[in-house]
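yo, Transcriptional activator protein LuxR is done. seq:
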Amino acid sequence: MISNIWKTIVYAWTDAVPPSLIEKLPEGISSNSAWTASAQFFESFGFDKLIYIDRTMAGLSMFTTFPESWTSHYRAAAYERIDPFFAYCCTSTTPMGTGIDYLSDYPYLCNAQRQLIQEAGETGMRAGMSCIVRQASPGGAGGWNLGSSLPRHEIEKIFSEHADLLRLTAFFAHQRLQAALENEHRDIALSPREKECLLWVAQGLRSKQIADKLGLRPVTVELHLKNARTKLRAATREQAIAIALLNGLISP
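structure:
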């Protein structure tokens, strides 16, 4: 029933919807499959530099077509704390231009924010449009940065012609991705050591202190914490603890 409703809405807006769009994002789809199907759809319009990012109190969910080296750098530098996407784009559902081609439009950005945009530009990201699916609130924010290696004027033309379809798809794909991530978090199995290390971090201990308590080397503690973050799709230790607590994987 839900799929039929979405099809009706989509076809009412445009005749250009691929017949298999909804079928590629069925209920129960995995997050990786949902991401792949969504990315292929957006890429068919020329958006080859995609970022789906959603920040909640439980942590950061992020999928992107950017190089892994850039994604790792983004997480390691905790760029979500200063990302203009969260600071400005997510304050309104009105699409905003993104990328280095729009940098001169935002003179109020700080140096760190400009550096982030320039670093993204070094991967080929020139221009894009924001599609916000969850406006900024105390609980977080999220959406799509439909980026491209195409120049600004081409992106604006594409978006103006297909804005309704792109924004609807962004919202629908967000719903599928979030449902999949919630199901996958329920199935996460942390090892006893990973749980122990997270609990000690939650109590304020550093890696060396945890190592002393557990009779391990600090590098081993770091490895357990890294594995836990990877399993929980968390950018930081704090986010890993929050996700683990919310999903009942550890108890305070």
